Amino acid sequence: MLEVDHLAIERDGTLLQYQLSVATGEILAIQGRSGVGKSTLLSALAGFVAPCQGDMRWQGQSLLGLPAEQRPVSMLFQDHNLFEHLSVRENLQLGFSGKAPAEALNAASVALQVSDLLDKKPPTLSGGQRQRIAIIRTLLRPEPIVLLDEPFAELDPSTRQLATSWTLHSARAQQKTVLLVTHQQEDVTRLADRAIELG
Amino acid sequence: MRNVLNRMTVLLSGLTLAGTVQSADLTVYTYDSFISEWGPGPQLEKAFEQHCQCDIEFIGVEDGVSILNRLRIEGERTKADVILGIDDALMEETRATGLITEHQQDLSPLKAELNWQDPQFVPVDYGYFAFIYDSRKISQPVTSLKALVESDARVLYQDPRTSTPGQGLMMWMKAVYGEQSSQGWQQLAGHTVTVTKGWWEAYSMFLKGSADYVLSYTTSPAYHQLNEQTSHYKAAPFSEGHIAQVELAAVTRTSQNPVLARRFVSFLTSDEAQRIIPVTNWMLPVRDNVELPPAFDQLMQPTRIGFSASEMADQRKGWLREWRNAAAL
Amino acid sequence: MILSRLKHHSDTVAGLTSLAAMVLISVAAFYGLIGFSGQGADWQLLSDNYYQSILLFSIKQAALSMLLALLLAWPVARALYYGRLPFQHSFLSLCILCFVMPTLVLITGLVALLGRDGLLTPLLGESWNLYGLNGILIAHIYLNLPFAVRVLLQALHNIPDLSWKLAVQLKFSPWQRLRLIELPALRGAFLQLSGFIFVLCFNSFAVVLALGGGPRATTLEVAIYQALKYDFNIPEALTLAWSQLLIAGALFLLIARAGRSNWLAVDTLSHQFTPQPGLFSQWGHRAVYLLSWLGMLLPMLALIPGLYQSDLSRFSLSALVQPTLTSLVLALVSASTAITLAWLMLIPIRQARLQQHNRRAMVLEWLSTHSLVAPAMVISVGLYILLLPHFDLDHHGIWLVLLLNCALVVPYAVQQLRPRLLQYDAQYQHLSQNLKLSRRQRWWVEWPFIKPTFISTFALILLLALGDVAIISIFGSDDWTTLPLLIYSYAGSYRIAEASLASLLLLLICALIVWAFERARHHA
Question: What does the angle CA A52 – CA A55 – CA A60 come to, to the nearest 5 degrees?
């Protein structure tokens, strides 16, 4: 279980407060208007923002003492998910402690229709293509907690459907605990077990 | 090529070997153009080593003043047995370091013109400062320093703070103008092309045609005659007389080998050495009747004016300040 | 976990140690001077007319050089950006060559071109005199304008296509484009360049010494040299040195505070669209471009006639082999050491930036580049005085030369590498932390990103180290001679033609290095 317990974060002079818990294997959608602190919460869980009060626990163990490099978290950022100077294939192979799971990666890229982009470099790709590649890596990494910050924002309706169903399938198969920030009600209905509104 | 590789090895392993280098029997501090491959150093070294069956080492620093500065920095720990190339204008400051001992030389073979009696410093060569011009461009050169200052001819000279000829001109102006030298400097500044850091900057600019007159030595025409077979560069004789520069050698008090050091100083004034120095260092020999190429016979014979070394030492700071203020305005 | 923290920690320690070593060099140099004279600075000098006139002149010429270089560089950069002109790559390589051109070579070229009997002098009228402010400004502009062109052009290239498309959509007038798109993009670059060029010119030594023309045109750095030379007046030298350090250092800090946002240039940009200038501007761009080519090439070409002035029959080329090799080895070792040090010193700086400790980052940045503003003359003479009694500098002075060369080029390496590394951090730090990249992986990811910058930085400092002579002339010895030192000693013995030849050789080597590294960078 992932618990966010009386967590308070200071941002630009205002205090953001969070209180929630997510069961292991649950997919939680987080909604709320812009600026309410959705991304900040994800950043705090991933270890990029230090809270001023409260605690975050994963399976009963506090995450606070761990630096970003050691948290059990795989995160999809709003942008800068790919190294622009490395090929797509090289990008996909990063983030695995041992050898990258070649078969799973291949299957995923076929499923998300990016398999013929593997030898290209990111600057030549469209926003939607980049996003699908980043989703693949984020979900396939061995971390139990997955944080997705507006993962489908740049996708057209048909690829969006493809991506959400792949994400759902992949998360369930690996028992991932997922926090999903989104503005789209359809993402919530398709993907989430539960949704909360911040703010 | 092998030699080059050796040097590279030395270069890269130098630090570790620092303690193991064998020092020479005699270490001589001098200025670096003296020991460049076309300067007198290599020939003198060869000749003297044949006499003494010993190993001498020249260490070249930038110029005469740097020899003095180096002695000041090193003090009692100096490696030098002999210093060579300080001129008479710096003699008193060098003496004041307390690092120079008596040379114990017989000074009688020296030219009477030098009138030399100092117990610590021995002259090795000397020269007169003069303004050089190109006779293809100037048919009627100026005949006095005053005429040059009052003319509108373009003049190049060297900074008295950083070069010996510059110091020479400072004495020259003082000797000719006395109390009025400040006005003289200001007048000269009106048609000075530039004041250079050292001798060669000025001289090479002159050769490229940057000025009508450049401050150098009376011996400069001899260089052009002997090496380039050209005779249009001439030194202008000035009616007020010329300032001399006498280059000196001396033995240090801290020398571990004073006997050999004195022998080397004695060698420097010998006929053999005096035949080498003029045609490599482009200065005049300090002995009479030294056999030299005919170009040296054609040089002008100026009258000597100027100040004693101790006057120079006392006045330098004040004169420099005067020049600095007059020429800067 | 502890292990990885330790590794992290050891990087920081290495960085801070390098930084401390650099600072120690400067402190030791000042200590050497103060300790030897037993006196501090002579503050009475501050009220001396001469001191005030030097100070004013130093500031005046540096400000003018900076303004002119920037004002002239701007149209050239625009011409390159809009112009689609032939041979742009060669032009940009030539720009580097100009920036690193050994001052000795440049001065010879300028005198041949604009001196009393220079090739262009007849066009300049009777009253023309190269020496003094004229010559100083021309040389400073020649050295710095091409560098400014490269930086400004880069800033223009960082304008996203989208901005231009938007501008066209909104039917901006040329003036609006300039004001709303170009100027904001260039603001940071202008600020940084003005500080950088001002400091370089403020501390200028060789150019002012050669072209200044005496006490009328003296900078603090030259005055330090003069005070140490005949008078051996250490208190006076110290006063001048502190003044220089204070003014240049404060200015540098100010600029660092003001212009620190322009490194956030993200790499995702593609460049397919820039607005087409009108026919009139196109011809303007071509004219500016052609003039810049001429301006940069002429002083180099002017060296060639010098070769014919006297015969070279008695000259053997082999005399050049050993000095050339020494110069190359010396430069290679200095540059490699300097770039390693710079890389290490940037580690704590990057960490401080990431942790938003901006004040600490700024202090560290200042310290890492402080030898750019510290008087080089004091550093070399101070160390010389300190080491001479304990260390055989006649035979092993080359190590000191290495050290000094290295200390003087480190700031350039830091300045070149820093924006790229900070850009990397800003863009990818969170991603690489989240991906839990190992040390080896981090290096593998970072290296291709930084490689082009690394290569051009290395080339730049290699060239600077190759041409550096200000220091060596103090320590030169019979055992080893470098090419610049050889040029001095030829020229010092009436051998002008040989000096021209050696200058051309040095220039040629620099040109070859520029060419080779630019090629390597484009293939990287």
Answer: 165
Q: Give the residue, C39 or C294, on which the prediction is more confident.
A: C294
Instruction: Give the Cα separation of C460 and C445 in Å (integer).
Output: 24
Domain housing C164: 55-216+277-304
Q: Which residues of A touch C5 (CB under 8 A)?
A: 67
Q: What percent of chain B has pLDDT over 70?
A: 92
- Does ipTM exceed 0.85? no
Nearest to C405 by CA among C478, C455, C466: C466
Of C211, C232, C477, the CB nearest to B69: C232
In this predicted structure, what is the pLDDT of residue C3?
43
- How close C483 comes to chain B (CA, Å)? 14
Q: Is residue B6 part of a domain?
A: no
| B10 has a pLDDT exceeding 50 | no
Rounded distance between C-alpha atoms, residue B259 and residue B177, angstroms: 46
CA-angle at B162, arms to B63 and B211, nearest 5°: 105
Residue C153: what are its φ and ψ, rounded to 5°?
A: -60, -40
Average confidence score pLDDT of chain C? 83
- Whether residues B61 and B176 share a domain: the answer is no
The conformational region for residue B178 under phi > 0 = left, psi -120 to 50 = alpha, else beta, is left
Residues A125-177: tens digit of each pLDDT = 999 999 999 999 999 999 999 999 999 988 999 999 999 999 999 999 999 99
* CA atoms of B116 and B98, how far apart (whole Å): 21
Q: How confident is the model at residue C269 (pLDDT cuts 50, 70, 90)?
A: very low
The number of CA neighbours under 13 Å toward the Cβ of C228 is 27
Which residue in B has a C-alpha nearest to residue C495's C-alpha? B204
Q: Are residues C475 and C371 in the same domain?
A: yes
pLDDT over threshold 50, residue C116? yes
**Nearest residue of C to residue B164, measured between CA atoms:** C230
Q: What is the pLDDT of residue C167?
A: 78
Euclidean distance between CA atoms B300 and B236, whole angstroms: 9
Min mean pLDDT across A86-95, C253-262, C364-373 is at C253-262
Token pair of A41, please? Answer: 């919460």
Closest CA to B166 of B211, B201, B126, B135: B201
How confident is the model at residue C456, as a pLDDT?
Answer: 87
Judged by a CB distance cut-off of 8 A, whether residue C428 touches chain A is yes
- C296, pLDDT greater than 90: yes
Nearest beta carbon to residue B36 from set C53, C215, C493? C493
Stretch among B304-313, C276-285, C287-296, C493-502 having the lowest mean pLDDT: C493-502
In the block, tokens 């380039």 appear at B228
List of chain C residues whose C-beta atoms are within 8 Å of the C-beta of residue A74: 434
Which residues in B207-226 are b (16+ Cβ under 10 Å) and which e? bbbbbbbbbbbbbbbbbbbe
* Residues C432, C298 within the same domain: no
Question: Does C113 lie in the same domain as C7?
Answer: no
Helices assigned H by DSSP within chain B? 2-17, 41-52, 64-74, 91-96, 145-150, 164-177, 181-189, 199-207, 220-228, 258-268, 271-281, 309-328
Which residues touch B150 (CB under 8 Å, ≥6 apart)? B187
8 Å CB contact between C484 and C467: yes
Domain count, chain B: 2
Average pLDDT (C516-520) is 86
Q: Is residue B3 part of a domain?
A: no
Assess whether B271 and B314 both reside in one domain.
Answer: no
Same domain, residue pair C205 and C61: yes
The domain tally of chain C equals 2
Bridge partner list, B84: B249
pTM of the model: 0.79
CATH number of A2-197: 3.40.50.300
Query: What is the rounded average pLDDT of the residues A36-52?
Result: 91
Instruction: For residues C211-236, give the mean pLDDT.
Output: 81
Is A39 touching C (CB cutoff 8 A)? no
